[in-house]
Amino acid sequence: MGAMAITTETVPAAPVALAPIAPGLPVGPMGAADVACCAPLTREPLSAEAAAGLARTLKAVADPARLRLLSLVAAHEGGEACVCDLTEPVGLSQPTVSHHLKVLVEAGLLTRDKRGVWAYYAIVPEALNALSAVLAAPSGAIDRPAT
């Protein structure tokens, strides 16, 4: 019996209709990828459209299982993880883990690389950096007494 060829196929994230964080700016794959060019929340108020776009991105990470999956993928050897390595640590079924990973890919926070029958996921560092930049408060920007 001959050796079976294994193909590698990178599956791009499905286009997601997200609003730009600031009017007139193009929308990147995660919507919040455009966040890097925009002011942090503490510098200027968000428009309603920008808030809706950012909320969609935040919704992707607002689930404990998804946050755990992001952490597991980021900490995994080589910076990528097979879906087969992620089901046991989070204690969820493979279809549920795959769903959560799909949401993270659509949000632009992970990439997906199909290899044979398995999918491998990797963090998109720029997306996480952009998201953290929008949420960052410059030192001294918010000086309010604790209540």
Automatic annotation (TrEMBL):
Keyword entries, A-Z: DNA-binding, Transcription, Transcription regulation
Sequence ranges assigned to domain HTH arsR-type in this UniProt record: 46-143
Gene Ontology molecular function: DNA binding; DNA-binding transcription factor activity
Classification via Pfam families: HTH_5
InterPro entries: ArsR-like_HTH, ArsR_HTH, HTH_ArsR_DNA-bd_dom, HTH_MetalResp_TranReg, WH-like_DNA-bd_sf, WH_DNA-bd_sf
Protein name in UniProt: ArsR family transcriptional regulator
